[in-house]
Structure formats: structure tokens, C-alpha cells
Amino acid sequence: MPRSPLSIDGYQYKLNRVYNNLRYYMCTKCALPCFARGVLKPDGNFSLSVSHNHPQDFAENQLFYFRRELRQSVGRSTSSCKDIYESIRLLYPEAANLLPFTAVESAMFKWRRTCRPPYPNTLQEYYDLLISEKWCNRLTYDRGALQCYFLKPSENVEILLFYNPTYVEPLLSNCEMNVDATFKCVPCNVGLSTRSAQCFTIMVTIHNHSIPCIWALMSKRTAEAYVTLFQHLKSNFPSMTATQIMCDYERALYQSLMEIFPESEIHGCFFHFCQAIYRQSKKLGLGSLVTQNEHAQFVLRKIMALALLPCDMAVEGFNLIKSEAPDDIRNAFSNFFTYVESTWLEGVTPQLFSVFNLVRRTNNAVEAYHRVLNQKFGVHPNVWAFTEHLVQLQSKSHNDVIILHSGQRVTRLPKVRYLLNAANISRAWRELQNQQISLSEFLENAKYFVSSLVRTLLSNDNSRHNDDLNDVLLIDGARIVETRIENAIVDTMRTANVNNASESNSRDDNLHTNRPTTRLRTATIANNESETISLSNTNRSRRTRPSRPLTRRVSQRRTRRRTSVSTLVSNNGNADTSTFAQTTVQASVTRVTPEEDAEIMEFVDRVLRENSVQVTELHTENTELLDNFIADLPQGSALTLELDRSSVVKDMFSFYSDPMVTLKSLNIVFKGELGSDFGGLTKEAFTIFWNEVVIDYFRGEDVIIPFLPLHRIRRDKMNFKLIGRILTHMFILTKSLPTKLPLCVYLLLLNNEEISDEIIMNDFKLFVTKAESTLISKAISSFSQLSTVELYRLQEFYSSYGMYDIPREDQIQEQILTLATDILISKPKDFITIMRSGILDTHLTTVWNVMTVEELSTILNQLKPSPQKVVDCIVQREQELTNDQSRVFYYLQQFVLSLSDSDLQKFLLFVTGSIHLPSSILVTFNNLNGLNRRPIAHTCSNLIEISSSYSYYQEFTREMKQYLAHDFSYEYSQI
């Protein structure tokens, strides 16, 4: 039995003996002598049988936990000892002062040597260590374990495969595969050459999501290596079949795939095709010509668009491009045309590079994954850091598959504008097949399909490897990215603006009878969790595009209409619009026929249905309904607001300078953080704003009122306009109000000047300090019992607010009421008037002017938290709890009851993103332990995950207080 030490309540104990499943401990200061003894029971309760004869030593207590965390971390983490020390010292600042890094550095290295495997020199040694009984646990994760397989088909070719057979087998049956490799994350100390070695990844498509499932470290990129790898998989998984495989144009790779998977459709990645075409044009000296000459760029685009043709039409299309090119361009491109013909049409062949009629035309799922891989792993990490990160990726992938099989999503839905773009590509294909357009017309249109791609390549003149691709283009399953289709239905999606919509409506009145019906489309996602997902972010600034003559007939049409596609997403098909997250996209669209419009919407419906989306339609003949729609459902038309935690007030003031933003919902992004806003970040943003703005624009104790010193009134008073807008938008989006604003301020905001004396007095007692409030209450109830000192303090209190009357018993209540009215009503009134002037009339009418005093008072009372109220809100998510979970659930309740007002606000901010009382707080449990043990909050659903591994209440309380005390605990770390 290990003689594990124990630290409780500032005392340290060492294990004395174990008897009948009880652990008997003695004080570590027994040499004093201290005869304290205690017993630790199996349920985690510790009781003293003999008390201590010396005071508690909390510094020693902190030091104990600090050393324990350091020891556990160096054995588990691959970070440097210095980095580990710096991260943990934030949790134990006092102990870090007693134990600097120089004093513990050698011990940390010693701890690491005893619990970390040695570094291998070859791939074979790496494999031997991973399968050894001592170190095989390095590949385990919460739902299983990776297994590794070493293959050596020849002397110079070595392959080390990683996958979980139980997890992989069902995924490889009748699947769609994406395969690609990256070089940067190959570990540096296993004898692999960084020039020829690679980390090869196989991803499969599940419910329109690409999931990585197999990794391979390969010393060579030869056909022999690839054939050996795929043969191993085919022999281990006899049911492995692939309907479609997407790869790049590495000859050894695609030839091996054709050999091992003859029944599969194998296609090259469209982006890699275009990238190779562009790079070769630069090598042949055409870079400046393509950049400066529009006709040359059109020819290059048409060559790229050859991959969009059916394979049997590619040669004909190529000859057509050459014949239609201007003479000077044809002469300049002669060597380039020879390259395309010999390399692509005769070498690679159109059967491989054609992506005609494919939904997923690029390998960007793997490329995007490799970017994340390289960012997480770093460049050529050490082998055990590589192992740790690989296991984490497998764990995430395993969890994603479980989520997908349950009918939920792990990525956002494709945006409507991308679906419309895809509809036009599909329609062009269909028209070409039905001979409604000629090959020449298709190429003329298709050159605009790749315009965004060409701009991306032109902007990245420094040739980079595939690992560094930053732009995903065209359609790739759930990742659908931007392409400009200039001759098609949609030109560009712009941010919706109510005023512009109204102007457009009046401008198009003469055309109204001829145009198709504008649609407000409502989409509902079947989801088991209480989350809302926005399909589109319309607050994207347009990138500058090179100017171009309007050469196409469709571009010369100056008559355009404004159309809206509004997408509402909710959970479980609920009809309650209060839980919807809406997205309204305002688009500039060329005139189309009703048949074409129906065609596009049919395509959108099909893609949405493929993503488990149910679609309903609303029809309107003009944009007037849109205004009412936004007013009734202000969460529509989501705008992205990026905030820096160090300048939230400044950022929000700048954002709310436009009053129309209060008609739309928000998508909050905190700089440097990875949280996704499903409501939780919005609540937190408003909470942070009010916590900071009160410092400069309000004054008071338990309640606050608008206030500015004289020297700031001229400069800053108009900011109260913005504060009024923010207050209104907060109420609309989060259904909450700052509870520190007194009732009388809200009544002035309601334009209600008949405020009772009782409300004024109650608010005034909360506005002043507690000592002043006690003095006021005593003066009103028993003036004659005031001492001389108290009378002097009362006089001082009067004069501090500019009132110099002598306190009199018969006038005391009237004097204080007059003072309170002046402070709470008269002086803030001008600021509150400015706040009202910044609020849109529609919100004054529908929000503030219709609210009664009783309703407002009820709202504020319901929002004010107390420990008991919060405990009453806490609900366990699991129906039945284990003994460990029940114990920790009780610890949580007792912890909340013990919190002060300020600590309670921190707890609520951590869990819910707001300091107001929520309707409920869900509690669920995990098995995290050691350094990984921490509370995890999901602010969008008011859910907190807690480890069930706590043995006693003091341990739980200590760790919870440490997390709530540090600012970094409130940052978001997952998308």
C-alpha cells in the first residue's frame, strides 16, 4: 500500500497503517511532538481522534498541493518543465513564492525520468515501446485505445500505422474516403528523414462530416509503401469498400489506390488541379501576364474549369479554349498549352481530374484537418508529444462519431449563399447534359466559377506546400466555402439593412408585378440538445476584387431586385420562436424567372434535407413584413461582434453607434478564444460590459445611477445614447436586465415620472453605503436616540450631497426624501433622457412604454440571485447518480450555499455567462482526475461538468475557489 500523504484544512498527515479498510494517519509534525491522529474512511470522510497542538500551516498546505500537481503533470504532459511550472504556479501563487522553479527543477526532471518512456532512435524502437506492457497505456483514451502496427515491405520502407480496430471497422464499410499527407508533424527523433517521411491520414465521410480514423508514419512515399499500407487494411478489414476516394495527384498514391480499390471511383482534388495549373503558369513566366491581362486570366480560368467538364468532353473543351483565345494570348501560352496537353490530358487523364457531378470536389476536409494538426503538434515535435496529441485527436474523433450517430452536428450548417452558389454549378452541369447550353457557353460561365480560387492563388505568390493552404474553395461536404459566380443567380450576399430594404422596396415598385415572390425560409434542425445554430453570418466585409469590364449580357442588366432568405434554426422542431436563432441574408440578385427561382430553392431544400433539416416556407410580396419580422424576432440577422476582453466597453460603444444593429441578433467572438456563441457568449458580453461601464458612467453601492463628473459631461454624455441601446438589446436578446440599476431609474426609462416615495426611499438606502443606510434608518425611526457622534455623521452625510439643512426630528423624513429625490431622480434624469433618445422608436413602443411598474419589479426580483435561489435551480442531468456523483452533487450544493454575493456572481458568470438567476443549472459528471480535473461550463445551455473523483468537501471547495479566482477560467477554449 503506497504511503500517500494527506493534507486537510492546513494540516499535513502521513499514513501510519491500514486496518479493516481504514487508513490511519498521523501528523507530519510528530517530532514537535504533535500526537494528532485521524482516520480516513472508504467514503472519503476524515475524522480526528486526537487534536493538533499547533496552529494550521496553510502555506505548507499550498506547498503540498503545488508539489503534487507538478509531479503529476510532468509525468502526463509533454510540455517543458518550465512551461508546466509556469502554468501551475498560477493556481498556487503563495506556494510558488516558497518554491521557485530553480528549487524544484531537478526534482521535476527526476520525476519525469521515472514516469516517461525513453526516446527511441528508430521507428522500430518506437513501435516496440508502444506495444510494451509498461508503456502501452500511452495509447489509451476514455473510450478505448489506439493500436499500432509496424510494416516493413523492404529495407528502406517502414510504416507505423495507428488506429482503433473496433472503432474503425464499421466506418470503412461502403464509405467515402479522403486521403492526404502532411510533413510538418512527423516526429523528429525516430530516425525518419524530414524530407521524405510523412504522416498519412485517412478520413471517412459520416453524415456529411469528414472524420479522421487512420494515421500512418511513412518513411517513403513510394508505390510499394502505399500498396503495403492499403493491403494491410484490406486484409484486416475484409468488409472495407470505398464508393469514392478523393486524393491529390501524387502518382504513386493514385496508382496504388487504383490497384487496391479497382471498384472505387477515384478522383483528384479540384483545388490541387487548379493549384498545379497556376504554379506551372508561373514557372513558364506567365505570372505577370495573368495578373495584368484580363484575357490571359480568362484563358487560365477556363483551363482550370476543364475539371468541371465530363471526362469525355475535356479534350474538346481544351481545343475550344485554344481556338477561341486571342492570337497574342495563344502565342504567349503555347508552352503552357503543351504542358496541359501532355501532363493532364495524356498523362493524368481526365478520368482522374474530372470532378463532374461530384458534390465533394476537393480534398479540403483533409487539408483543413492538417492545418489544425500542424498547429496543435507543432513542427516536428518530439515523439511522445506526437503520441499524446494523436491520442487526443482519436478521442475527439471517436466522440464526434457518437454525436453524429445520435443525429446531432459537430460543425455548423452550410450557409445559404453557398448553397445558392452550388445550385448554379449543378444547374450549369444539367443544362450542359441536356444540351441547353453549348460547350463554349459552359466554359464562358465556368471561368467565373473559379474566379475566387484564382484570386486566392494570385494573392499567395510565394509558393507554399499543401500544408499551408489557407483557403478552402468550392463545395466540400459540410465545409462549403466561397466562390464567386458572376453569371449566376447570386452575385454577393450583403449585410441586411432595414433602411436599405425599405428604399429598395420603393425603388422596385414599378417592377413589382413581374418579379417572383420573395421567400422567408424557415429551417428546423432535429437536435437532442437545447442549442440554436445560425446558418449564416451576414456581418462579413467584402474583399476587394479586381475591376472588370461588363462583358457578359447578364452583367449588363442594371435592373436588380432585393430578396431575402431567412433561415430559422431551432431544436426538436419546436414551434416556440423565442428559442429560435434566425439569420436574414440580404442579397443583390439578377432577375430570374419563377421556374429558375423554384429550381434554386429545390436545390437548397435538398441540401438542407441531407443535413437533417426540415424546411417550411413563408411568402411575402414586399419587404415590409421583414421589418415587422425583425421587430418581433430580434434575434434574426445575426451580426458578428468581435470583442477584446481588455476593451469591451470601447468595442461595444463602437459597434452600437449604428442603432439598426439592435434589430438583429449577435454572434459574439472573444479575441483569442475558441468559444461558439449559442447565447452564452452573448450573455457574458453584456455582463462584462455592465461590470466595466459602471466604473466610469455610474455611481452607487448596492444600486447605481447614471453619473458623470463636470469635466466629462460635455465629452461623454452622448455615450448614454449607446448605453440605452445596449440595455435594450440586452433585454431583447437575453431577457435580463442589470439588477444594479434601481427601480426608479427603470421607471424614468419607462417615461413614468410618478414614482412613489416608498420606491425612492428603498432605492436610496441601497444607493448609499451600508453604514449610511443604517444611520438613515435609525434617524427616521428613533431620531431622539441618536448620539452626538451620529448627529455629526448625519450632518456630514447631508453636506456630502450638497444639502446644508440642520437635521430636525420633525423634518428628518422629509429632508432625506428630498435629498433622495434630488440624487435618484433629478440629477440622473437628463442622462436617462439621453438613454431613451438612443433607443429605436419601435423598441420604446414595444418594450419600454408597455411595461408596468409591477411587471418591472417582478422581473428585477426574479433576476436577483441568492445562494438558496441558485441551489434551488441546480438540477442533476443524469436520472440516477452513483455514490460518487451523489457525494459531489451534495458538495456543489453546500459550496454554493457558502458563497458570498461577489463569489456567487463569479460562479454564475462562469456557469451561465451572466450574473443573474437562471431558470435552471444542469449538472453532469465526468471522470477527470489529477491535473486534468476541472469544472467545465457550457454557458449556452447553463450546464456544468464536474468530476466525480472528489473524496472530501474541502478538496472540492479549494479547487472550485481557485478556478473562480483566476481570470483565465472565464475564457472559452472550444468551438
UniProtKB/TrEMBL annotation:
Residues 540-563 have a biased composition (Basic residues). Keywords: Ubl conjugation pathway. It holds the Pfam family MULE. Residues 534-575 are annotated as: Disordered. The active site is at C940 (glycyl thioester intermediate). One of its GO terms (molecular function) is ubiquitin-protein transferase activity. GO terms for biological process: regulation of signal transduction. It comes from the Eukaryota. PROSITE patterns: HECT (PS50237). Residues 658-946 form the HECT domain. The keyword Phosphoprotein does not apply. This is HECT domain-containing protein. It comes from Photinus pyralis.
